[in-house]
Design a protein that fits this description.
With 423 residues, the protein is of the alpha/beta class. The protein contains 14 helices and 12 strands. Strands 9-8-7-6-10-11-12 form a 7-stranded mixed sheet, sandwiched between helices. The longest helix is centred in the C-terminal third of the chain and has 26 residues.
């Protein structure tokens, strides 16, 4: 049964992908038609067009979005991305995935997402600050510490969150650190937040490897996307004995079957702007990188990277989705037929929102935890969530993505039933 009331998206669009995933999982649940449609449809969407004064005195009109997918479980939570390819449909999809991610790991949040259609690499720091403060003002009618709490995503970072927090606070007349997460530690950020998403990828990979009989000591790892998530996942996997053989970023990829030093790679990228040109490594394209011989593949770039066209050529036994939506439904089907285990994004990369929740709680209470406390609580929540998903997969004989979505959707549906339909 399809979700008829939702405006459908073009084939291959992220929103279409999110809806297909939702429908596949919802088919396993006894949802009434109207409830099913309500769970799929975004609650509210805001699109803004605003002027930004550039350093040369010119004015540029920028488009941004903020989407709340669900508020059933609590205030909405979700990152803000700056990227030239941002569209409303992409933000809708990311907001939906955030709902399922928060539900899956037991957080009292609904899903949201924000996006600005801009290439941040083309702007100066001054222009980025002007853009961020104006965008924050435009979406301030939606955000708030008890309403909607943004965080960093692709193209944004702790400094971006600091500007948003300060802008919101200036309008309120008092400091409101809990309005965003992913802030710098000196202004209310949480220890362990920067590493949380990559750490979560490693923890879920460890749990999956145990059940698959895959030894991570010496396992060959390929990482697509060498930003915050990919670089930290690579370093932590190397720390437990994995051999990182290839990585890539927007500038290209590098490959050495004998192994690469993840931290030296990061130093090289910080100096030059890309992993490209790293010594003693062969050049590979992003597409070639996905198909290299390896045991573990960590796609940590953008959505739609593993498709029905290339999934048959992927050689990894285990895929850990560091990015949101890197595998299309067609790609999922091919991988499932081949017996490749995919830890879905809403589980694999949920470490970031889990520690964002910790940061939010610390900010509201003004009582801060040690990094060991943060990491221990992160591991406890992720291991529990992984065990629950694995159990659903075995019980219903579905892959881990469907299992994760079934559990997440069911929890939101149960909460909706208990709250009732207003009025």
């Amino acid at each position: 049964m399809s979700v008829q009331t939702v405006v459908m998206a073009p084939k291959g669009d992220a929103w279409e992908q999110a809806l297909r995933q939702f429908n596949q999982a919802a088919d396993h649940l006894p949802l009434k038609r109207g409830i099913r449609d309500f769970l799929a449809y975004p609650k509210r969407e805001l699109t803004v067009h605003f002027p930004v004064k550039m350093d040369d005195g010119s004015v540029r009109i920028i488009t941004g979005h903020r989407v709340h997918h669900s508020t059933v479980l609590g205030p909405t939570k979700g990152g803000i991305r700056y990227h030239p390819d941002v569209t409303l449909n992409e933000v809708r999809a990311l907001a939906m995935w955030m709902t399922w991610k928060c539900s899956l790991v037991g957080l009292p949040y609904g899903g949201a997402k924000g996006g600005v259609t801009v290439n941040p690499k083309e702007l100066t720091q001054n222009e980025l600050e002007h853009l961020t403060r104006r965008y924050a003002t435009e979406i301030s009618i939606l955000i708030g510490p008890e309403a909607d709490i943004p965080a960093p995503d692709v193209g944004t970072n702790p400094q971006t969150m600091a500007w948003i927090m300060d802008t919101y606070s200036m309008h309120r007349g008092y400091s409101t650190p809990a309005v965003v997460t992913g802030k710098p530690v000196p202004i209310g950020g949480s220890l362990g937040r920067v590493e949380a998403t990559g750490r979560g990828c490693v923890l879920t990979a460890r749990e999956a490897a145990r059940r698959m009989g895959l030894t991570l000591e010496g396992a060959a790892v390929v990482v697509q996307g060498y930003g915050n998530v990919g670089s930290i996942a690579a370093s932590l996997l190397a720390d437990i004995g994995c051999r990182v053989v290839a990585v890539s970023d927007t500038g290209g990829g590098v490959y050495n079957p004998r192994g690469l030093d993840p931290r030296k790679l990061l130093d090289h990228k910080l100096r030059t702007g890309s992993v490209k040109g790293f010594p003693d490594a062969d050049v590979v394209t992003n597409q070639e990188l996905l198909e290299l011989p390896c045991d573990v593949l960590v796609p940590s770039a953008l959505e739609g990277q593993i498709t029905g066209d290339n999934a048959a050529r992927i050689k990894a036994r285990l895929i850990v989705e560091g990015a949101n939506g890197p595998t299309t439904p067609d790609g999922d089907a091919v991988l499932a037929d081949r017996g490749v285990v995919v830890i879905p994004d809403i589980l694999a990369n949920s470490g970031g929102v889990i520690v964002s929740y910790f940061e939010w709680v610390q900010g509201l209470q003004q009582f801060f935890w040690t990094e060991d406390e943060v990491n221990a609580n992160l591991e406890r929540i992720l291991v529990r969530a992984f065990e629950q998903v694995w159990h659903v997969a075995e019980d219903k004989r579905v892959n881990l993505r469907n299992a994760a979505l079934i559990r997440a959707i069911d929890r939101v549906a149960e909460a909706l039933h208990l709250r009732g339909i207003y009025p």
